[in-house]
Design a protein that fits this description.
The protein is α+β, with helices and mostly antiparallel strands and 166 residues long. The protein is built from 6 helices and 5 strands; from the N terminus they run H-E-H-E-H-E-H-E-E-H-H. It has helices at 3-21, 35-47, 57-66, 91-102, 120-127, 132-165, and strands at 24-29, 50-54, 80-85, 107-113, 116-119. It is elongated.
């Protein structure tokens, strides 16, 4: 086999592994971004633990077809970047959506979130979900409020009884 074919097969294997491992995979059209804007986006992705890659569409198509994820192939038109989220399935969508608000050249296309295909509208909807840490903090806060009220109530009863006894 030729060296070129071996390189392509290795790249397809790499893409296949990333798709299998990722909780979320979001496609975006990046054409028109400057080098500075692309660098800024990549930094935000890295900071959030999201892997941001650009692959040849034909190689991604081969990997997606091998994994039975043919639905995503129709979105592989033109220059497409892929954000792979391994821990937080909302992170790639959130970062790309927030970045696209300030940089109109970046367009969300579609994504695979936990194996399910999301179109652009669903990706934007997913992007509005806060990060896991924020959701957990809100949940804990909602547990804390009733407990605080109970403590306040019990303390008020105790103080009332003490004032009646005095």
């Amino acid at each position: 086999m030729s060296e070129n074919r071996n390189l392509k097969e290795a790249k397809v294997q790499e893409i296949r592994e990333k798709i299998e491992k990722a909780e979320a995979m979001v496609l975006a059209k990046y054409q028109g971004l400057t080098v500075e804007e692309d660098t800024e986006l990549r930094k935000k992705m890295r900071d959030a633990g999201v892997e941001y890659k650009v692959y040849k569409n034909t190689l991604v198509t081969i990997a997606a077809n091998e994994l039975g994820k043919e639905d995503i192939v129709k979105y592989l038109q033109g220059p497409i970047s892929i954000a792979f989220g391994y821990e937080d399935p909302t992170a790639p969508a959130r970062i790309l959506n927030d970045f696209a608000k300030d940089h109109k050249k970046l367009e969300l296309k579609a994504g695979l979130i936990q194996g399910e295909l999301y179109d652009e509208a669903k990706i934007k909807e997913l992007a509005s979900i806060p990060p896991r840490e924020v959701l957990l903090a809100k949940l804990l806060g909602s547990f804390k409020a009733p407990l605080s009220n109970l403590v306040y109530l019990l303390n008020a009863i105790k103080e009332k009884k003490e004032s009646e006894e005095a």
